[in-house]
Design a protein that fits this description.
heterodimer; A: alpha+beta; globular; B: Aldehyde Oxidoreductase, domain 4; Aldehyde Oxidoreductase, domain 3; seven-stranded mixed sheet; five-stranded mixed sheet; 18 helices; 27% helix
Chain lengths: 191, 788
């Protein structure tokens, strides 16, 4: 299955800081829940472990993330990711195009368009929840990103450059259910 | 049959005898494969592929083997040592037992873990590490033969595309000519999606090998135990299995519907593992494995064309089909035609000519085909013709019943030779439809529909007047790997007049123990309660090809009648000896021979049985038993007319089947209650794909209908109150005049429901809809939105 995710959000930080952060896979990984940066593979490729729990399925994806293009003049970057479940239960590919826009008020707008292709157990079982799970990951990612770039909060700075916690199944399931409930309510309100 | 020849105590044909098997089923006392426990038994579970198409780079079994409960991990490499990693399919294709270098569908078997208990086996599966390299996937059969499509079966020499076969039947040029000169032609694409039988009992086996005697015993969920035994001897003879030492036992089976005909890799792995380890091994699928990896049905993409005169006379039919077979052609189809009985598609109508062609292709999906209570593609054929006839009626502004009545093969035309070469044995189609229309109040319903339409309410009436073709089959056309499709009955009358009867078929809930006993009761006058019926153990039962495609009554039922007649012939000789009369002076009435004109000078069949062992005439063999192998001279052609009435909620798109009347004609009836039960079950399995069931795949080959969360099986809540009736047109060539009924309703019901839904929406411009008719699809049709 394919999931397309398009997001836009703002960070109260200068574009150069955001660009520097976003093009550093190690830094970005530290903001993704369940992600663990392993090592640089050279040639703009990086090894990252991604732990994910959706409902009954707990997956660890051994992933290779490659920066395919960096265009600093337009603040545009293209990233490709390829992950396989460590237990051989499936895999996922991701293509993402990110673009930064200077809001000229010291803040930066981040636009991200990504397509994730999923194969295996997660695609079979998680198909109903995957969009909501993705959204939830994204919310946690932006929160964490903003915290790092905007604030100097001790807890953030003191944490190591990795976020080891598996994205909590309960939290995600809860958020996903809320997401679905929200959509249903939304649909009802439209009538 | 208007009246019964036997008393209720004897319980021959026509009596609604209560099923002998039900007390044990109702009390939970049935004995299924999973109830079999052997000393020292170990358990097997299977590692399955998450990818639809991928190279296997490595399989690491180290962690699994370190698990304290795990005894062995079996891979393709293990089986290759014994040359058991590949196996033949029933369609003379090949399929993997376990892969060596690549997988071809999601949920394919990759390795098997044997452990001391079921939980450890599952834990072991979790611990096997498989490294894959995903390959491009072929999901859409229409793209399977594109030049840039990846070749799925690159293991097969000379297979340079995903095309499997081209097959055609009928008269192409004659049919083309009809189309050129036709007043009206209609062309429509009709798709019957992939579905799964979802039997209550999943598949599995217990395999036990005695390394001292070389005896292999397999308790197995199979509809065809004898064929399995022979296939095993043929494919595994080289590892020392010989047919006299293979015993296949099919105990109680919790539903088959064709899904328990194929040999799945799990069986072979378990058998191989038990032979290699010497341990009894149990393997039972879970529900997801059953839905995702076992044989499916349908997946026929049909382009149908029909040619008619202005007055609605049907003249020509053309169907071009693309058949999605998955990664191997493993349809359990014992006919000599790759598309089975699909050419029965001219149905109940007197067409002048017809032509069909079918192309089979490989895709990255599980192998199989036809396994869904269907006599080898007759469901596809009936769906196509019954939809097309409605489209002609719609085009010409004719009534759906009228166009059928005008085009039915007339009663006096039987035996009728169809343009495709089938010889229909008997039928009275007008009578069946007329009865259905009278009983449901057709004219009144039409009036009601018109009134409702005025008010904006959606109501539809749908008819299906199907002809089935069952009882496979005559040896000239049917075999399984060369073994002809006869079936058998062995009947032994014990000295006390009680009977043990054994058959080559295997009930999966059809009630054979009762039906066969009634046939013997009818023929010999022995009370059905004195007759024990046994099937499924290859060590004791006579050789037969098993139960599927509504073949048991047409073949083994006939064999029982013929064996009884052999017994009766001998009984007459013994009776003559006992009555001191000439054989030709005796006459038979239910249960006894008497001297013509001297009715009180008689002996009962029980007296004769006793004499057969205690006082047999000199020169005649002792004992009273007979065996018959029945090779049917022709197929039987049950038929029926079904009428469905639906109401549709325009707000939600939900279809409610308000009434459903089924008039069936399966020839002479053995047990009316069992027949009615078969029709109820069959109708429910016809409703299922019409409204709910579909196994679908996304573009990456992920199964999106692989659990009961997505694969909706109707429950009592969704099932309407079935109304049934019958006409009786005996088969002229079956010894009992019977035809078989197990599948009629599943074959006939879907077009009635679809025709009703399309009828309800016809004033909105709807001409055709593909099943399953989900609320979303129907809602979109009402609101004129394309399907997502």
């Amino acid at each position: 299955m394919k999931v397309k995710i398009s997001k836009t959000f703002s960070i109260s930080a200068p574009i150069s800081d955001v660009w520097e952060f976003m093009t550093d896979i190690k830094s970005v990984s530290s903001c993704i829940p369940g992600a663990q940066y392993n090592e640089s593979l050279g040639d703009n490729k990086h090894s990252v472990m991604l732990n994910l729990k959706v409902g009954p399925i707990k997956s660890s994806y051994r992933s290779e993330i490659a920066i395919k293009s960096l265009d600093e003049s337009n603040y545009t970057l293209k990233i490709e990711g390829r992950g396989t479940d460590t237990k051989g239960r499936g895999g996922a590919n991701m293509e993402m195009v990110g673009r930064l826009i200077d809001k000229n008020d010291g803040s930066t707008e981040v636009n991200g368009d990504s397509t994730v292709t999923i194969q295996g157990m997660l695609a079979q079982f998680g198909s109903r929840m995957i969009e909501d799970v993705s959204n939830q990951i994204f919310v946690q990612f932006t929160e964490s990103l903003c915290a790092k770039l905007e604030g100097t909060r001790e807890d953030v700075n003191n944490s190591s450059q990795e976020s080891n916690n598996t994205l909590s199944g309960t939290a995600v399931a809860g958020a996903a259910i809320k997401g679905m409930a929200g959509r249903i309510m939304g649909a009802l309100k439209k009538k | 049959m208007s009246q019964c020849k036997t008393s209720p105590e004897v319980g021959g044909m026509g009596h609604s005898v209560k099923r002998k098997e039900d007390p044990r089923f109702i009390r939970g006392q049935g004995k299924y494969v999973d109830d079999v426990v052997r000393p020292g038994m170990v358990y097997m579970d299977i590692v399955r592929s998450p990818y639809a198409h991928a190279k296997i780079k490595s399989i690491n079994t180290e962690k699994a083997l370190a698990h304290p409960g795990v005894a062995a991990v079996i891979t393709g490499e293990t089986l290759k040592e014994y040359n058991l990693h590949m196996m033949p399919t029933l369609m003379s294709d090949t399929q993997m037992v376990l892969p060596i270098d690549k997988v071809c569908y999601q949920a394919q078997e990759v390795a098997a873990v044997v452990a001391t208990d079921r939980y450890s086996a599952a834990d072991g599966v979790e611990l096997v590490e498989v490294e894959y390299e995903p390959l491009p996937v072929v999901v859409d059969p229409h793209k399977a033969t594109d030049p840039d499509a990846p070749i799925i079966r690159d293991d097969k020499e000379g297979q340079d595309s995903n095309h499997i076969f081209h097959w055609e039947a009928g008269d192409k040029s004659g049919t083309d000519e009809i189309f050129q000169n036709a007043d009206v032609t209609i062309k429509k694409d009709i798709y019957l999606p992939r579905i799964h039988v979802a039997s209550i009992e999943t598949c599995g086996c217990v395999s036990e090998f005695d390394s001292v005697t070389g005896q292999l015993t397999v308790w197995m969920t199979t509809q065809a135990p004898h064929a399995i035994r022979t296939v095993l001897a043929l494919v595994a003879g080289h590892v020392g299995l010989q047919e006299d030492k293979i015993r296949i036992i099919a105990p109680d089976i919790g539903g088959g519907f064709g899904g328990k005909v194929p040999v799945y890799p799990g069986y072979v792995i378990a058998i191989a593992a038990s032979v290699v380890t010497g341990l009894p091994i149990k393997w039972i699928e879970d529900r997801r494995e059953n839905l995702q990896a076992d044989s499916f049905a349908r997946d026929y993409h049909m382009t149908c064309e029909i040619a008619a005169d202005k007055d609605g006379t049907l003249n020509g039919l053309r169907i071009k089909t693309l058949a999605d077979h998955g990664y191997a052609d493993a349809a359990a189809n014992p006919s000599k035609w790759p598309a089975g009985m699909f050419s029965i598609c001219t149905g109940s109508y007197n067409f002048k000519n017809a032509f069909v062609e079918v192309d089979g292709v490989y895709t990255n999906k599980p192998p199989g085909g036809i396994a869904y209570r269907c006599s080898f593609r007759v469901t596809e054929a009936v769906h196509a013709i019954e939809r097309m006839v409605d489209m002609v009626a719609d085009e010409l502004g004719m009534d759906a019943a009228e166009i059928r009545m005008n085009n039915f093969i007339p009663k006096d035309a039987f035996p009728y030779k169809s343009p495709m070469g089938w010889e229909y044995d008997s039928g009275d189609y007008h009578a069946a439809l007329k009865l259905a229309m009278d009983k449901i109040g057709y004219d009144k319903l039409l009036k009601e529909q018109a009134e409702k339409r005025e008010k904006g309410e959606l109501m539809g009436i749908g008819i299906s007047s199907f002809t089935e073709v069952v009882g496979a089959g005559p040896s000239k056309d049917f075999d399984i790997l060369g073994i002809k499709m006869f079936d058998s009955s062995e009947i032994r009358i014990h000295p006390t007049g009680k009977v043990m009867a054994r058959f080559g078929t295997k009930s999966q809930g059809q009630g054979h123990e009762t039906t066969y006993a009634q046939i013997i009761a009818e023929e010999l006058g022995i009370p059905h309660t004195d007759i024990s019926v046994e099937e499924g153990d290859t060590d004791t039962a006579p050789y037969g090809l098993g139960t599927y495609a509504s073949r048991s009554t047409p073949t083994a039922g006939a064999a029982a009648a013929m064996a009884c007649r052999k017994i009766k012939d001998k009984a007459q000789k013994i009776a003559a000896h006992l009555l001191e009369a000439a054989e030709e002076d005796l006459e038979w009435e239910v249960g006894k021979f008497s001297v013509k004109g001297v009715p009180d000078k008689s002996v009962t069949i029980q007296d004769i049985a006793f004499a057969a062992y205690t006082n047999h005439p000199q020169g005649l063999e002792a004992g009273l038993e007979a065996t018959h192998y029945y090779d049917p001279p022709n197929m039987t052609y049950p038929f029926g007319s079904y009428i469905a009435v639906v109401d549709i909620d325009s707000g939600t798109g939900e279809v409610k089947v308000r009434r459903f009347l089924a008039v069936d004609d399966c020839g002479n009836i053995i047990n009316p209650m069992i027949v009615e039960g078969q029709i109820h079950g069959g109708l429910t399995m016809g409703l299922a794909p019409s409204l709910f069931e579909e196994i679908s795949y996304d573009d990456e080959g992920n199964i999106t209908g692989g659990s009961f969360m997505e694969y909706l099986v109707p429950t009592a809540v969704e099932t309407p109150n079935w109304e049934t009736d019958k006409t009786v047109t005996p088969s002229p060539h079956h010894p009992l005049g019977a035809k078989g009924v197990g599948e009629s309703a599943t074959v006939g019901a879907p077009p009635a429901i679809v025709n009703a839904v399309v009828d309800a929406l016809s004033h909105l411009g709807v001409r055709h809809m593909e099943i399953p008719l989900t609320p979303e699809k129907v809602w979109r049709a009402i609101h004129k939105q394309d399907a997502a």
